[in-house]
Amino acid sequence: MTANKFILSALGVEVDYTIGGNPSFTALIYKSGAFQKSFNANEISSESTGLGTIVSFALMQSFDTGGERFGFFLPFVNVTHGQIAHFRTVGVFEMFSGPNSVSHRPSTWRCIEMSGTAENVFVPLQEPARVQEPARAKETAS
């Protein structure tokens, strides 16, 4: 079966990406040092290619001053449920400026080599029901 859960890491960057869950749930968590940002599926761009999938998202973005994007390449990985496959891939940072940036500059890219794990997991399509604790009677002192 095709893997749907990926954990990638390199040089202080960690990405936890799950495909196929409820679109309103967190699909990707990006961490770099103390910085952490979560993304829902609609905030992530993915393009399937003949080699695998390119996934990207905006780390910081401002229309007028520019920002930074990060992306990574996911090879096609088939893995049995309950098993983990290891792979190596690349991540790419893009810094870009906006139309109102002081000292407007062309985009720049920086690549990093990443190692990752892939597995096939069951993903929830809805939030699990929460168990409500019974109300406790208030004790009164007599």
Number of domains: 1
Given helix and strand content, the structural type is mainly beta
Specify Rg, calculated over alpha carbons: 20 Å
Distance between the termini: 66 Å
Give the strand tally.
9
The number of helical elements comes to 0
Shape summary: globular
Adjacency order of strands in the biggest sheet: 4-3-2-1-9-8-7-6-5
Estimate percent helicity.
Answer: under 10%
Element-level helix/strand string: EEEEEEEEE
Low-confidence stretches: none
Oligomer state of the chains in this structure? single chain
The overall pLDDT average reads: 86
**Proportion of residues in β-strands:** over 45%
The description of the largest β-sheet is: 9 strands, antiparallel
Please, could you describe this protein's structure?
By secondary structure, this protein is mainly β. The chain has one domain (5-119). Helices cover 0% and strands 53% of the residues. The chain has no helices and 9 strands. The chain has strands at residues 5-10, 13-18, 26-32, 35-40, 45-48, 52-62, 66-75, 84-96, 108-119. The chain has a 9-stranded antiparallel sheet with strand order 4-3-2-1-9-8-7-6-5, with no helix packed on it. The termini are far apart. The mean pLDDT is 86.
Key features of this structure:
mainly beta, about 0% helix, about 55% strand, nine-stranded antiparallel beta sheet, about 140 residues
